[in-house]
User: Fold these one by one.
Assistant:
Number 1:
Amino acid sequence: MLRLCLLLLSIVLLLVGFATNAQSVISVASTTQSTSSLASPSEFLGYPLGQWHLRHDQINYYLKQLAQNSPRVSLESTGQSHEARQQLTAVITSAANQARLAEIVQGRQQVKAGKAPNGPLIIWLAYSIHGDEASGAHAALEVGYRLSQSQEPWVQELLDKAVVLITPSQNPDGLDRFSTWTNNYTGKVKVSDENHNEHRQNWPAGRRNHYFADLNRDWLFLRHPESLGRIALFHKWQPHYLGDFHEMGHNQTFFFQPGVPTRTHPLTPKENQAITSKLASFHAKALDESKQRYFTKQMFDDFYYGKGSTYPDINGAVGILFEQASVRGQQQDSENGLLRFSQAIDNQIATSFSSLKGALALADELKQYQSRFYQRKDKHPPSGREAGFLLGAPGDPGRRDDLADLLSRHGIAFFYLKDKMQQGRHQYSQDDSLFVPINQPQKTLLLAMFDLRTEFEDATFYDVSSWNLAFSYNLQMARNVNLNVDDLLTEPQARVPGPLSSNNVAVLIDWRQQNAAPMLQTLLSEGIRVKFAAKPFSLKVDGQPLNMEAGTLQIPVAQAAMTPRELIGRLAVLAEQYRVQLQGVDSGLASSGIDLGSPDFHDIAPIKALVVTGYGTSSAEVGELWYFMDNLIGAPLTQVDVSRLPSIELTPYTHVFLMDGSYANLDEKYARKLGQFAIEGGVIVAQKGALQWLSKGNLLKSDIREKRYFSQMFATDGLSFGDKAKLDARQSIGGAVLALDLDTSHPITFGLGTNRLPVLKNKVLGLSKSQAPFVTAASYADEPLLDGFLAEEYQRSLSQTPAIVVERHGKGALVALADNLLFRNIWLGSQKVYANSLYFIPALN
């Protein structure tokens, strides 16, 4: 009974702990001065709002002025962006509610327990998560100002009955990149020509954050600090309504949800969509009054739960997407006439207030919907025997721990194993496995994160069709396992480090460990010699067999740089720092396989990598590589704009990365220079569109299959004009998970811990075998589709064709990847391929 009580207490602490974790939400108290001293945004700036695009520091300064001068306003800080910009949210409610905010927040923590308090409605208006969609951030200041000082009866009723959260800028780094650009090209005479620099940002543009990531795709994955703070805020306040304000192409009008009905995710409750439809009438009325045209139920959907308008839908709230035609400057010609930034701001203000009025009018429905969402019998705190997911990352506690951190930030309860256990064909270890009960308060979100489906009512997707974490983390997974959670652990067992001694002849590191790569990089940077095993082997340690896979790192204890005692001491420190398991061995003689002195142990050389950036390259994929190198590997990555590349001497570099792109601004003759780089020992790693450019330059010998090749597979006879949209949807690849069969003897696959690897495919491109000397290291499986939508024509065409190819070029190599194995930096299961390219491929020759 005591253990059960402790377990229930831990679940409650999990649900209330969002405000006290590492990304804590810090309240900044308001003063009680009169609203008479408040300056409007235009008065504060000294010019009409929108005449110049705002910087993030100006936005924050104004929010602080509101908090200092209005008893209705306080501030929440949700941490800093990558570039150390503070992220603030204004909390606006009546002075009486401000005085009891702590009580209100405490009450909100009861929501997931199915005990909805009889407290205020929580409305969150969130703007400009894409930094170059700036009308929302400007509108937010005006909305905040009016709420902080208005004496209108409906506003006073709203603030008595509700707490309004206003986040003007959810992407500070991108917004500042954009505002600086567009202001630099704005003159006294406004230029509406769409070709003017003001409307055409330089690469990488302001949409994305510091690492060029789309933060509106990161609500589930939480790879970035901006997202961590935002999710902590969400679960602290558990809003009933979230307005998500965006911009779209300048030739559109204005969109608000509901989206395309047939493209709503099946896990979204129908009641959610019913309330969304009722709220639409408020937005329509507001825009009709200003004669602004708009549309609904087209283009946009409610499918992928990693966006600001859909994450609320799977967490007991109602999220609404707004899309304003984008000016990307001050004014721009469009198919609908001249579009002005001031008009865009006005539309965002209008739908902000329609959101407030609509939520207030439907307050009871919103509260009841949220209560019913969490009061279902299958959403109880786990106790006793429960059915759940058993998840394992064999040999890699790092992936397990990353997943555990992600689940905890979303309020999902999980448990650690006490002992090893067998389930089906797989063994699950207490060192690398989790048990996640299905029936728990966050059941709906949990099911969404591991959703498995390959059939869809509508095959059109605004984003990916699959985001199953079991595949992105490359986990062993048993879906319907019954365990008694009272017999499991709420904290992981401490890992006992392997014994090390100066008597050891070598220290071994299992390469399957996620953190083995950053530790290797540190060792190389300190001049410590490290080798990797090209073949598996087995040793005897204390009379017991120690089986090690190909890719195992060996650190010989006899080093020129330091004594054995010094080396062992340093390795112990690094093992603790990186949470990597080490294994000391006293003999280099193998009981099977290669000995430690075998020539099949190859030296690993220090790396110096370069990535090509700029127009013609994918900023998203460049950013993902940069994030990987910066945040995991811990190695510098030289970024060179494509325009400067021909003048750069490549000799100092070991690797050149070419991410997806057209490379239209790079002469195909430059491929010869890259070819010489490879011949002299360099490694080229290229993926997706870069392969097409390399093929045209005759550097890639493998044959490319482009969109034109695959389009011939689709029957078009007898199709009507109305069928074109369905055909287009079938011919697109909107992000599906495919299986690769691996050649596990190839160094590019070492450490993946499996012979079948899930990858996300989102580009129509394939490879076919050629007669040139090359090695296919991975091919699409015979039946490749694992999750999401992929037309049968693609499934047949891709079956058993190459996906990862390594071509030799003189002393070097070209690694060709048909897919992006770093997708959004959540594909932890496949990112090892890049580490292998860095450290193992140079030793092939």
Note: Residues 376 and 772 are 61 Å apart (CA to CA).
Number 2:
Amino acid sequence: MYPRISATISLWLFAGGIAQVALWPRLPVVSGMFWASYLCLVCALIALLIAVPMGMRRPGLTTLCHCLLPLLIGMGWGLYWDRQALDERLPAALHGSDFQVTVRVTSLPEVRPAAFNFGRPRGVSGNRQDVKFTAEIESSDVATLAGKRVQLAWYATKRAAEIRGGSRWTMRVRLKRPRGSINPHTFDYEAWLLQQRVFATGYIREKDAEPRLLEGGSGILQLRDSLRQRIQASALESGRLVQALLLGDKSGLTDADRALLRSTGTAHLLAISGLHVGMVAGFFLLVGGLLSRLLGLYWPHNPRLPAGLAAVLGAAGYTLICGAPLSAQRALIMTIVALAAWVCRRRVSGGLAFALALALVLLVQPLAVLNAGFWLSFIAVAALLLAFAGRTRSEPGTRAGVYLSGVIRSQWAVLLALLLPSLIFFSGASSSGLLANFFAIPWMGLLILPAIMLGAVLPAGPLGDACWEFADWQLGLLVEVLGGLQLRISGWHWLPSPSWSVAVLAAGSILLLLSPRGFPGRWAGWCLLPAVFAGLLPWRPAEPDSLRVTTLDVGQGLAVAVESGGHHMVLDTGAGSPGGWSAGRSVVAPFLIGEGAVTVDALVVSHGDRDHAGGVAGLAEVIPVSRLIAPGRLSARLAEGVPRPVSAGQCTAGAQIREGDLTVSWLWPRESSALDGEENDHSCVALLEWQGIRVLFTGDISRDVERRLVDLYPEFAPVDLLIVPHHGSRTSTSTALLDWSQPARAVFSAGYRHHFGHPHPTVVQRLLSHGVEVFSTADAGAVQFQWATGTELPRVRCARSSAGFWLTAGPLAGCE
């Protein structure tokens, strides 16, 4: 006899075959011959397992075939699905084109007050709104667009109330190829769009053709939309939280809500998870059980069958209503497996249910492994399965004591298991999470969620409203308690991304600590923890022998991070929008934290344009800033808007600052104190020098200032790197500047195919004709230059050249 491969192991191999394709750096271009060879191989393995008589089988070969078959099937499906998702994106040649389309809205529209996003912030319009939604194209003037999924925005419209889930529209849209900023340690928006199979993003061209409503909402989307309208009409103080818990719609959450939940480690309570699906299934199981008992009086049947069906239908309906996130899909599958075993009076191991859920989720969404929610959901469940493995219901102690022990054990297991994913995905962890979740989870599961769900099931009226008012009251109390906890216990801690060695130690210690009682070497987990915590301290050994200059990919804006010998400097912070998004908070801060920064020693803001200074407040909210430098009165004005006290200074030609081995010399402006710092020609111009390496930072200066610099510093030596002025606008980067600075390399910071047209082709050609090596964040993502002591040539890394297969680099991405 040969060793048999269990169904659990086969499911794991199948899931692993799908998942590993998503981690490939490049996908091969597969042909019909490839798929024919693949099918022949799979059929041969099946035939070998079926046709060969039992007595003629070799145990080792048979076991190998049993392992290879699910692995190959999973890999084939993953490759096919991922290749299709990659190919089903708007061709680059059609980027920015206009199309006449008929669409059906396939998501809950996200509605916000309209914000004018061009130039400097001009305030918010009170009678117009911005709407974002996902839609499926039903027909178009270009036939190949039919059936594609697009993400659209309708800016500054007065018709936001007409856009409902499931509604059909005909409209003129401008579509763009899915694209996102790519930086180390930050959220990959482009990968998220690929997971959602988004063909293109874009916006409605209302002035070209008035959008026309063809049909109102219908189906499950209409139900979701009507529930949201009902919540919003009920004027609940915590309506935004009720909306998130019932529908999975977090668009109404405020920054204060998110900060509180993150600080107390309770953000998962508003993420639709197994807790929510389990509560719904339990409620319908109870109702179904009561109905089954009544039915049994007149018709003999398996009493568990109606109850189980009611629970499955209820859980499935809730999963659809909340938008079917990955965590809910996982919970639904495991619930169905458990209920089927209960109805059939069979025992199914938790490992089999877990493996089945994993395989089915990846079968439906092979790119789910790129989603943080996928890892958090499955790791949390795996931790609970490990923590309670081998434990029985008949443990000694009172019922209350056993329950309390189980709650503490489950919270401890989830806290341990999610520590490493939290560091990797969110660059930090909460120190008060264990205590907060100890009371918040039972509070949410026993009081708040049942009231919300009962209010949704009941028709609109006094009884349903009373349920929601009770939930609203309880949510208000919970928020108050969490707020008090946040004030008394240090909450969220930003920490650098762990190294591979620390990650392996952490994973090993956590697995040992969560292993069942009696597992050999279980105590060693405690011995590994000191090394893990030492490796997670928010500092890294100083690197005095290197200089790193990273031009971050912040779209149409500028942000440069400089690090030398453990000192961190930031030159500009990217844009900030009136709607609340900040490149400083979303891009610059996560990058710095991932690189081990605990403070910004010097923050230089070249001038007041929003695409350079818009992220200052967002950056300072996350990381303390020691010194803020800007031209003229701008420095004091910006210092007033940051949450922590900061030393404000001005950049005035002739002055210098030092950060370790790095010297920063100001070349412009000449008279800084009288300037307001808002104009392009007020920009701080700085020369950064480190062990003979010279970097020229120029802000948005024009040709006039460039000529002044040539006159002021006639003996200027060549520079190793030029941060190109004004994103490559044709009003800057003159021949005079290039002859004067003689840069070896130059980097543009610009948005991908932005309507400003940066960098301008004439500027690019001018640089190339001077023999300059040219890079652009639009084509390369974040570009990092690193010089070591005694070397003149830097090591260059481009984010788009070192990430996943879905990222493409453009012509100005000269990295290997």
Note: Confidence is low (pLDDT under 50) at residues 117-124.
